[in-house]
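To close the chapter, one final illustration. This time we ask the reader to focus less on the individual chains and more on the assembly as a whole: which components sit near each other, and how the overall shape emerges from the parts.
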Amino acid sequence: MALFIEHGYDAVTVADIAKQAGLTKRSFFNHFADKREVMFAAADAFEARVLDALGRADPELEPLDAAVWAYSKAAEPLGDYPDLARARGALIESSAELQERNLMKMASMTAKVAELLGARGASPREAAFVSQAATTIFTTAVDDWVQQPEHGLDAAIRNALSEFRSALGAAV
Amino acid sequence: MALFIEHGYDAVTVADIAKQAGLTKRSFFNHFADKREVMFAAADAFEARVLDALGRADPELEPLDAAVWAYSKAAEPLGDYPDLARARGALIESSAELQERNLMKMASMTAKVAELLGARGASPREAAFVSQAATTIFTTAVDDWVQQPEHGLDAAIRNALSEFRSALGAAV
DNA sequence: GGTGTGATTGCATCAGGTGCAATAAGAACG
DNA sequence: CGTTCTTATTGCACCTGATGCAATCACACC
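The assembled structure is written out below.
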């Protein structure tokens, strides 16, 4: 990430990354499926925490509340490093292929969350809609928080959820 | 698309495509930014129709209804060719890089729709949430329709919108 | 000290993608 | 009809990402 930030994502080659890590290009591809993946190792861990939290969520909670709670819980370790999140976000925004990969990761996580919501009793359709809503709420909250970290990520999530409810409340 | 369907996306090279079209690899890249884009020429045209329709939508409609109406209107020309949509969908699903590109296109269109909803008077936040909802509803409807085309795409959209409302109604 | 296992590497190879300069193909014009 | 201007096509050199395979290195374990 340091290399990417300094020179830009496109300007850094896989050989550069490998050299920085004291390895060869070939070894890089033993650890990461492609150049993009190196930016998403943390995201994979985050997904695991989300799914874990959702599995432990209060069964009484409505699907949307449960999903948002899981995101909130999983995001707790990130809350102390807004600068890191901002740098990562800027990097992703700077490269189309990173944006694509990011969307893919989010979509994949959304699908898995939906599956767990289904296991909690929601219909597949409801689970899919609610999970998509939770993803939207979470990414919106992160964007807000990254720009104004002072109130904390948790508050940003609660705020985004509330705004989502009032935005969709009129229409639904 | 015929080549992709016959041999699979990965197995077909850009040189193959160019040869089939009576051109060279270099000329292919004069027409398409990359190999993936060749699958999304129609999608770009669809986006244009969505934005155009939304511009003409009844100003009295609530944001979500306006957006969904625009998708419905823009999708009319597709309604007669469910087989084509199914083949295209299967192809995209078969390739991770096509999925990524598809998500990117949808995200980009979602952002543009949100902008137009903003121009209709919605707040940026409401516009973003509603536009994301409309995208979810539309893609869900297309999936449904592709599997059971007999009731028509328009009915599938209306149905998905209704299901969205009832799924989010309890939570919102 | 020997052995087995996994990580690392070198190498060859391929496909996607780009910049640049040359050239072919026409359309427009006198 | 011939010229000119524009645009599409091409060839070529070159780079990066990515993969398969075989060799080898490091090292924990017995």
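Chain A has two domains: 1-37, 40-171. The interface with chain B takes residues 62-65, 96, 99-101, 103-104, 107, 123, 125-126, 128-130, 132-133, 136, 140, 163-172 of chain A (CB under 8 Å). With these observations in hand, you are ready for the problems at the end of the chapter.
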